[in-house]
Amino acid sequence: MLGVFMGGFLYSILSLAFMQQATFEGEVISAIVAVMLAVLCLFFFAYFIHFVASSIQVSNLINSLVEDVKDEIDREEKRLGQDHVAISSLEPEMVTEYDAVTSFKSESFGFIQFMNHDRLFEWADENGAVIHINQLIGEFVTTSTILLTVHHDDDVEVPDSLVGNIELGKERIVYQDVDYGLQKIVDVAIRALSPGINDPNTAVQCIHYLSEALIKNFKYTGTHVIYNDEMHIGRLVAKRSSVEDKLYKVLSQISFYGRQDVTILKALIESLENIAMNSTDDVKREIDVFSPYVYDGFDEDVLHGIDYKYINERQVRLSEALNRVQ
Length: 326
Hints:
alpha+beta; about 325 residues; 10 helices; six-stranded mixed beta sheet
């Protein structure tokens, strides 16, 4: 939009600059085109201003972030739902039947933006090897960080290009990194709770969206993703964030910065209740452990009698949700 405006403006200026004296005696096609472009540019500029003003509104920003997170959760669910992919909460045993182990360090530094699991799995399957991805997507790595560990036979040549299936960048992106998408929504909530803005309603809205995203993301709760071959032998093992890590990263900062706002405490308890009601027993156990962190971190000096009434009601409902068996 801004490019159209700048292009039309430049065309109009250059057309006037290159016109000769004789050309003003009659109609000139370039002048007519310039006038039409000028009018069109005015419409594009007005739309550009409207688009910018609309995009920076908090509600639209939150909706955009939520849609990005939902899309990535759907893509992750599709990847994890493949027949040859398994999820495990236990770390796979170290491979001892192979003669050699080859480790690959990062060739540069930055955030892990992309992992090509399919290519790594195909190579491991074709060569009868086992590959362990040692880092999580989105982690910051240096040139001394080990990215891959390959267990293989002596007669298997491991190419250096294998580490190229892990791409680094200067910043994190949401693609393949659900945790970063959630963190961006958390950042909006924290800014809303800052003294300069003081907008707890926006923070509560973020908490509700985060709880919905966590419910979908907790469909698979294992910490290791295993790609199996036709013989059900794990050829590729990748790490995944645990339920405990996600709860802490998503809700701890909001709990800290909202520790004197009773509406934030109510929203956090309600979000934990919603997650517990729609999750497995493993997730409920993690919520049962995490929930006292939310209670104990709150400043009780700001609570009054009626506040205790509503908070206690929420705590009772959360306890009932945690006691329900799937």
